[in-house]
Amino acid sequence: MTVKPPAARSAVPGPGRLGLVEPTAADELRQLGWVDAESIELLWSLSRAANADLALRTLVRIKDGLDEGWRELDQALRKDKSLRGRLFALVGASSAFGDHLAADPIGWKLLDGTALPTKDEATAALLEAVGATLDEGATEGSLTYRATLTGPEAVVALRKSYKDQLMLLAAADLAATVENEPVVPYQTVGHQLSDLADAALTAALAVAIATVCPEGSCPIRLAVIAMGKCGARELNYVSDVDVVFVAEPADATASRVAGEMMRIGTSAFFEVDAALRPEGKRGELVRSLESHITYYKRWAKTWEFQALLKARPMTGDMELGRQYSEAMSSMVWIASEREDFVPEVQAMRRRVEEMVPPELRERELKLGRGSLRDVEFAVQLLQLVHGRADSSLHVQSTVDALTALAAGGYVGRDDAANLTASYEFLRLLEHRLQLQKLKRTHTLPPPDDEEALRWLARAAHMRPDGRLDSLGVLRAEIKRNSHRIRRLHAKLFYRPLLESVARMDKEALVLGPEAAVRQLAALGYTAPEHALGHLTALTSGASRKGRIQALLLPTLLESLADTPDPDAGLLAYRRLSDALVDQTWFLRLLRDEAAVAERLMTVLGSSAYLPDLLIKAPDVIRLFADSPSGPRLVEPKPEDVARGILTASGRHSDPNRAVAAARSLRRHELARIASADILGMLDVPAVCKALSSVWAAVLNASLSAVIKASVTELGTEAPASFSVIGMGRLGGGELGYGSDADVLFVCEPREGVDETVAVKWANSIADKVRKLLGAPSTDPPLEVDTGLRPEGRNGPMVRTLESYDAYYAKWAQAWEIQALLRAHPVAGDPELGLRFLHMIDKTRYPEGGVSDAAVREIRRIKARVDSERLPRGADPATHTKLGRGGLADIEWTVQLLQLRHADKIESLHNTSTLETLDAIGAAELLSEGDVELLRDAWITATKARNCLVLVRGKPTDQLPGPGRVLAAVAQVAGYGDDAGEFLDNYLRITRRAKAVVERVFGGE
């Protein structure tokens, strides 16, 4: 903690009171001669240094180096508070500059003055260090010089001169932390550092010209274009300097001069990086102006135009640099009209975020959430969006751009001011961290390193505020500014839009309709006029709901912008808001639970399947919140859900009302399961199990209601017991969103009841159940398919147990036996269902396995299915069901192994594909690698098939070609914006699985 002396105090303070904690401090003070009353002012100034011990230790090193010259410095420090403030602040905040002064102690005299050097003065000093004069062939206005000093000697001279100039700025920047010196504004620091970089590379170019062209004038015109932070004149103390080279002619000499300049600059000053040139590091280092123009017209990507926002000529042939800037400017401001503008910008932003390790995201000043990059990215995007129509936005620095955006009404004035303040605060911390050791860093010290954080607080001029010490103030400011950036990042894009449609602030500048449409288009809305209409409807009127919507929408729209279909998501949100207009909890929940709002937008912007379900089952939205034990969306267990459906429907005697109750709960469950799936909370097996359980429960509820009504009507007990046997995916517990329910109906006459009567009654029950479930509805369909019954669609709808037994014993075909492998009771009389299973076991698990003839028949049928059932025009490589390595391939292979080995291996008596694969692996019928390939393919194809339904809202098995739908499927499947990776992964996995299928199923 800094100790401030009272107005009158004559006693010399001890080291502890000065904030000195090193045991050698007292001896070091004596070495300096600062132990008497006349040194009190010096000592209190020393105590205010960021690290008083470091400052004292460095002063001793300087004294040792000066020898007799120490007296002059000592007297100067006693007389000149400004010098004292600059020197003590510098050596207390930067060990690197302390080392620099210790190596050349007389350098303290450079600090004996308050004026910062101008760009011309800095350039002159650096040129003088290498004896440079204007090159004979330089054109008027060119900054092309020729040095007399080259080689390692030139690098040493430039390094010393550059660090001297940098030290002057650092000392002035830090002085306010020790003495009451004026604070150097952030923009001034950035301008000074950028001017110094220009001067440094002007000198480096002079050395390069002398090296490459030792005799005569240099025969080329070379312009060096500053990019990035240097181009915007907002450079850090330690940063790469991004450059692009333009030359006439762009020949080997030009490339050698440019390469030598980069080498010298990197050795003497900072990393000189030309990676932003056309084609990046693979491209030519130097291009002609015409070559640059051609590249940007034909091949440049969106991020390259974004980088050009900050381009400016910095040294070399300035006229050629001006021509380059003019040529590029005309292309930069139409970049937002490019077809791929939005996805490229979003992809680039996501890639930047992914670069930061999760454990560093809260400490990253540059790339984390609420960081410098959030501000810069948002500002640049708004410049690109509106800059074509408004030339006032053609500025390069972030702060200037924010000011221009506010003046033009594209950003609220208060928001711009607050965002600027937060941006400058984070840049201040970044500068202080870099000054400490002159190392490039953007990472705050760990939260538990209080010593490092306390140093940073003092170096950043954080003073106790009465409640908190300097460390507490620093922590509070970091948290406040980071949160403010995150909040304003959303408002930056959307608040002006909402002010335009809601006119909440009559005095504020607001976006005009054209600007609002332009901004929405740049944020990913393909129909921005419609989106603007939705915003108008949501915020219209002076009602409280309209005001709450206006407050919520910036955050909601930001979340929507990251989804595959923001247009559909916004429309769905409007429909949902209209449907819940009388439900006060809805907007309150979105306002109070940020996670709920973000998840809801993700779901609405990703799926055509879910909006209608959520409108009819809005209580599911409450489950988007988290409970103490985890996500509430995944808390219900399938068996509890099934029990609830049966209980709710059982309260009604009318079958229609009972089925309506079951449908309502099914709707709720489908919305819950699909939401959890899209949000990545459920894996594929869990989704399939939950969907199968819901389907079985609805079927059971419907059957119970129909039988109950029939018994009431008959006035006696049911003439037969009745059971529903699930087949296919329903029997295996592996239903997808678009699956039908394959079933068999079986009955058993009661004792004393004629079989004909019993079967007739059972047929009427089955027919009513099918009609009830298949009645027209806007819900996802409930189709009951009995096509797998004996004799197919030509056979009776319902058979008795004895009839099934007789049929399968005498006439069962290979495909019917195969279908029985997935038979499992799902509804009705459980005892009858169990008897059915025991009855068919001898058929589906035949002793000795199926015959060779049956195997050949199964293979023949599969080949016919592959050739005849694949839809016309379908791509067999990406058809999830019938394609190569798709679901049919995996399931038929598993079922063939069951038919051949289940009589000997009881663990193969399983209807689930995945569980049977586990059993196959455990029995070593296939290698572990083969089993894993088949499992991966089945899960991958099922996931893709489910995602297709979620995205498109209807069943489909064919993956689409490149485009928005495939991108949406990839994003829902968890691949972010990389549809190519999703498709490559799908093709790779299914291709490998197909090789196993051909070997195992095909008998190769």
UniProtKB/TrEMBL annotation:
<comment type="function">
    <text>Involved in the regulation of glutamine synthetase GlnA, a key enzyme in the process to assimilate ammonia. When cellular nitrogen levels are high, the C-terminal adenylyl transferase (AT) inactivates GlnA by covalent transfer of an adenylyl group from ATP to specific tyrosine residue of GlnA, thus reducing its activity. Conversely, when nitrogen levels are low, the N-terminal adenylyl removase (AR) activates GlnA by removing the adenylyl group by phosphorolysis, increasing its activity.</text>
</comment>
<dbReference type="GO" id="GO:0047388">
    <property type="term" value="F:[glutamine synthetase]-adenylyl-L-tyrosine phosphorylase activity"/>
</dbReference>
<feature type="domain" description="Glutamate-ammonia ligase adenylyltransferase repeated">
    <location>
        <begin position="598"/>
        <end position="838"/>
    </location>
</feature>
<keyword id="KW-0547">Nucleotide-binding</keyword>
<dbReference type="GO" id="GO:0000287">
    <property type="term" value="F:magnesium ion binding"/>
</dbReference>
<dbReference type="InterPro" id="IPR013546">
    <property type="entry name" value="PII_UdlTrfase/GS_AdlTrfase"/>
</dbReference>
<keyword id="KW-0808">Transferase</keyword>
<feature type="domain" description="PII-uridylyltransferase/Glutamine-synthetase adenylyltransferase">
    <location>
        <begin position="877"/>
        <end position="1000"/>
    </location>
</feature>
<dbReference type="GO" id="GO:0000820">
    <property type="term" value="P:regulation of glutamine family amino acid metabolic process"/>
</dbReference>
<comment type="similarity">
    <text>Belongs to the GlnE family.</text>
</comment>
<feature type="region of interest" description="Adenylyl removase">
    <location>
        <begin position="1"/>
        <end position="497"/>
    </location>
</feature>
<dbReference type="GO" id="GO:0005829">
    <property type="term" value="C:cytosol"/>
</dbReference>
<protein>
    <recommendedName>
        <fullName>Bifunctional glutamine synthetase adenylyltransferase/adenylyl-removing enzyme</fullName>
        <ecNumber>2.7.7.89</ecNumber>
        <ecNumber>2.7.7.42</ecNumber>
    </recommendedName>
</protein>
<keyword id="KW-0548">Nucleotidyltransferase</keyword>
<dbReference type="InterPro" id="IPR023057">
    <property type="entry name" value="GlnE"/>
</dbReference>
<dbReference type="GO" id="GO:0008882">
    <property type="term" value="F:[glutamate-ammonia-ligase] adenylyltransferase activity"/>
</dbReference>
<dbReference type="InterPro" id="IPR043519">
    <property type="entry name" value="NT_sf"/>
</dbReference>
<feature type="domain" description="Glutamate-ammonia ligase adenylyltransferase repeated">
    <location>
        <begin position="86"/>
        <end position="324"/>
    </location>
</feature>
<feature type="domain" description="PII-uridylyltransferase/Glutamine-synthetase adenylyltransferase">
    <location>
        <begin position="347"/>
        <end position="493"/>
    </location>
</feature>
<dbReference type="InterPro" id="IPR005190">
    <property type="entry name" value="GlnE_rpt_dom"/>
</dbReference>
<dbReference type="Pfam" id="PF03710">
    <property type="entry name" value="GlnE"/>
</dbReference>
<feature type="region of interest" description="Adenylyl transferase">
    <location>
        <begin position="505"/>
        <end position="1004"/>
    </location>
</feature>
<dbReference type="GO" id="GO:0005524">
    <property type="term" value="F:ATP binding"/>
</dbReference>
<dbReference type="Pfam" id="PF08335">
    <property type="entry name" value="GlnD_UR_UTase"/>
</dbReference>
<keyword id="KW-0460">Magnesium</keyword>
<keyword id="KW-0067">ATP-binding</keyword>
<keyword id="KW-0511">Multifunctional enzyme</keyword>
